[in-house]
UniProtKB/TrEMBL annotation:
UniProt key word Cell wall biogenesis/degradation: no
Any single biological process term in GO: glucose metabolic process
Database matches in InterPro entries: Cycloisomerase_2 (IPR050282), Haem_d1_sf (IPR011048), Ig-like_fold (IPR013783), Ig_E-set (IPR014756), IPT_dom (IPR002909), Lactonase_7-beta_prop (IPR019405), WD40/YVTN_repeat-like_dom_sf (IPR015943)
PROSITE patterns cross-referenced by the UniProt entry: PROKAR_LIPOPROTEIN
Residue ranges of domain IPT/TIG in the record: 50-127
PANTHER family per the UniProt record, alphabetical: 6-PHOSPHOGLUCONOLACTONASE (PTHR30344:SF1), 6-PHOSPHOGLUCONOLACTONASE-RELATED (PTHR30344)
Positions of region (Disordered): 443-466
UniProt source species: Leptospira terpstrae serovar Hualin str. LT 11-33 = ATCC 700639
Family: Belongs to the cycloisomerase 2 family.
Protein name: IPT/TIG domain protein
Presence of the UniProt keyword Protein biosynthesis in the record: no
Domain of life: Bacteria
Signal peptide: none
Length: 466
């Protein structure tokens, strides 16, 4: 009996050392779900250190509230300290033994979250990314910049805005650290560095890469490794590799098309396999390429170009599933095509072309892939269309808003919460909010536009990880 007790005690002490929070990291690094379960088990038994098990979300903005779940927290909020990277302490709004509701502090940086109380301290398993959101657009030889409060939707002009920089409707890299622009009458693109704290652009390289004539439209590959630029008059696409740390572009190649058309809007499928471009003129084609995932090189699809017979196509958009492609035309229609997931070839979605609004000119896809928004130049209309998840068909316009006088561009922030429309005739722009349940847009700022210092280009929302 005594021997069995000794064996049991030895086994207990061995397991205790093995699972104890002080020794646990050496046996189970916190890198996978199994390790997290081991940590939870150890924390529950030994009741020593506070432990964070999960976060209600892994990214957010300053001023937003999130919930931390874990164990060994103090139910007295003042007895806990929660710090973000950058040694910035959060406000704790509610506390229990297993949950803390905190508000992300101003100045917080991206990284793990730390919890500390009199029982000890520990960090979250997951990295929390803190974002700041901005809107930028060019106005003649200047650039205007606004900060966007994602909690309230309020936009505030930067104290330096407008500032002297000809950014020519710059397109931002997915990480927001760099921006690129081209223009008519040139055969090169320019690059800009973005200040991570305030979003201001500064010139990086006035001649960052050579293209053919009139590089106007840009598209980044979902891996953030490649940039593609269509040349309006050059009837070609230039591919670049993109260094996410320096913003430096390295040219891969020019890919010309022997079509009697000018190239404009680009779209890449979210799975990164295919790239498409609108061609205005000739058979009014949509031209398709396959994308080499390793090198970024393009190859013509076997069935390309895909004629549409619909003139003056503008926006080109792909849904979030990489199954459907859409374009709008000033004739008041929306073209829908199904994408073959193996070949990239396009076939008409039943019912296409779909009825749009008179003169619908530009469009934007909601990140969810459920809604499609168009703006109408002549009728000054913002219209929402629903996208069928069954077959990709487009509904007739609903939730129509009438405002402004010459609506040229429509964009959404990366989360799809707020949208922006430029009003060319009156040198201003509008803001709308998207209903999270129905997708219906509603004008903000009491329906009034925000003034621009001159004719605004495309309002470009972007975000920067802090």
């Amino acid at each position: 009996m005594r021997k069995s007790n000794v064996l049991i005690l030895n086994l207990f002490f061995s397991i205790s050392c093995f699972y104890h929070p002080l020794w646990k990291p050496y046996f189970f690094p916190e890198t996978d779900q199994f390790s997290k379960l081991q940590i939870q088990f150890a924390s529950a038994i030994f009741l020593i250190q506070p432990r964070i098990y999960s976060l209600s979300k892994t990214s957010g903005v300053e001023g937003e509230t999130i919930i931390i779940d874990g164990i060994n927290f103090s139910p007295q909020a003042s007895e806990n300290a929660v710090n973000f990277s950058g040694s910035v302490q959060a406000t704790i709004e509610n506390a229990t033994n297993t949950s803390l509701t905190i508000r992300i502090p101003y100045g917080a940086k991206s990284g793990p979250i730390t919890i500390q109380n009199r029982q000890g301290s520990s960090q979250s398993f997951d990295t929390f990314t803190v974002y700041r959101y901005f809107i930028s657009f060019s106005v003649g030889a200047n650039t205007e910049l606004y900060s966007l409060n994602m909690n309230t939707g309020a936009i505030v002009a930067n104290s330096s805005s407008p500032y002297a920089l000809t950014s020519n409707s710059a397109s931002f890299s997915p990480n927001g650290k760099f921006a690129y622009s081209g223009g008519f009458g040139i055969s090169y693109i320019s690059s800009y560095a973005v200040n991570l704290e305030n979003g201001i652009l500064s010139s990086l390289n006035a001649n960052a890469g050579a293209t053919t004539m009139d590089p106007v439209f840009f598209a980044f590959h979902p891996t953030n490794r490649f940039l593609y630029v269509s040349s309006f008059s050059g009837a070609s696409i230039t591919a670049f590799s993109f260094d996410q740390n320096t913003g430096i572009l390295t040219k891969i190649n020019d890919y010309s098309q022997s079509c009697f058309c000018s190239l404009n809007h680009l779209a890449i499928t979210p799975d990164g396999k295919f790239l498409y471009v609108n061609g205005n003129g000739g058979t009014e084609p949509i031209i398709g390429y396959s994308v080499d995932q390793n090198t970024g090189a393009l190859s013509n699809l076997a069935g390309s170009p895909f004629g549409t017979g619909v003139p003056n196509m503008e926006a080109l958009l792909v849904d979030s599933t990489s199954n459907y492609l859409y374009s709008v035309a000033s004739a008041g229609v929306i073209i829908g095509r199904q994408i073959d997931s193996f070949t990239g070839n396009l076939t008409a979605i039943p019912g296409s072309p779909f009825t749009g609004t008179t003169g619908n000119f530009r469009a934007v896809m909601h990140p969810s892939g459920k809604y499609f928004y168009t703006v109408n130049i002549l009728g000054a209309t913002l219209a929402k269309h629903d996208i069928s998840t069954n077959n990709g068909s487009i509904s007739s316009a609903n939730s129509i808003l009438n405002f402004g006088s010459n609506l040229q561009f429509v964009t959404l922030d990366p989360t799809g919460t707020y949208g922006f429309v430029s009003n060319i005739a009156s040198n201003n722009f509008y803001q709308f909010k998207v209903d999270p349940t129905t997708g219906a847009p509603s004008l903000m700022n009491s329906g009034n536009p925000y003034p621009a210092s001159a004719t605004p280009s495309v309002p470009q929302p972007f975000r920067l990880a802090q």
